[in-house]
Amino acid sequence: IFVSHTETAYEMEEEEFFNTRISGGTVVSSALELTGEIIKERLAGKTNVYVAQVSDGDNYDTDNGTCSEILEDEILPFVRYFAYVQVDDYHNSLDGSVPSHFNFEKGLWKTYQSVSEHHKMMQIRRVIEERDIFPVFHELFSKKSGKR
């Protein structure tokens, strides 16, 4: 199941998800709300529900608290694992180095970091370059001796 969003979340087919470049304001809670609805309506009672989210970390500051609430009340109690990867400003660095304006404290990262400290099934990571997403997902979803 693939969910994309700007201010509004949309469920998409896989090909559309990986080939669509929608843009606009960012309200992450819209995607989390839709994800929670999908879990409740179509995956209720399933024991192997995994969620993976990739984001640039941009979100309206006023939405971060809502994201935390949705994660803790509508998603995490019903999933086996939630992986979040934040791609930080990779597009602003021409040589691949960390840009001087690199913001390590975007609100969404701090929100997810706080939630993950209380929920072992939620793991979060950061990458600088888009090409590093797959290796990080490989690490996050690799079988570890009894963990997860």
Distance between the termini: 21 Å
Mean pLDDT: 83
Beta-strand content? 15-25%
Total DSSP helices: 5
Shape: globular
- The total count of strands amounts to 5
Structural class by helix and strand composition:
alpha/beta
The radius of gyration is 15 Å
Amount of helix: 25-40%
Strand line-up in the sheet with most strands: 3-4-5
Give helix and strand order, one letter per element, not per position. EEHHEHEHEH
Sketch the major β-sheet: 3 strands, parallel
User: Residue ranges: pLDDT <50 for 5 or more in a row?
Assistant: 99-103
Search tags:
5 helices; 3-stranded parallel beta sheet; 18% strand; alpha/beta
How is this structure best described in words?
- The protein has 148 residues and is α/β, with parallel strands linked by helices.
- The strands form two sheets. The protein has a three-stranded parallel β-sheet with strand order 3-4-5, with helices on both faces. A two-stranded antiparallel ribbon has the order 1-2.
- Helix 2 packs parallel to helix 3 and helix 3 runs parallel beside helix 4.
- It is globular, with a radius of gyration of 15 Å.
- About 3% of the residues have low confidence.
